[in-house]
Predict the 3D structure of the following.
Amino acid sequence: MALTWNPQAAAMPTGVFTRSVGMRLAIVGTAHLQVRDLDHGLELGNRSVDILARVQSSRAKDYVREFNTALAPWRREPAVREFLHRTRKELGVAA
């Protein structure tokens, strides 16, 4: 499970493994959404976008797309709508 894998992966420095760290945050954020933890999921999702906005990677965008799909139960929440707008604007990613 991604939540148990995360502590080992957290040791990767962002400046060296930018894409990998951004993708990891999206994956772990998705895992939090799957256990109904919207707040922590969005926190990680936003950190992921912060990082991935600096790289060009279709694979990374796929992970953000999966994150956006996992947000479906909360589509009406203002924070979720704001996040989805942000991913469209900064990464060109829709749900």
Remarks:
- Helices lie at 2-9, 18-34, 38-52, 58-70, 78-91.
- The CA atoms of residues 2 and 28 lie 6 Å apart.
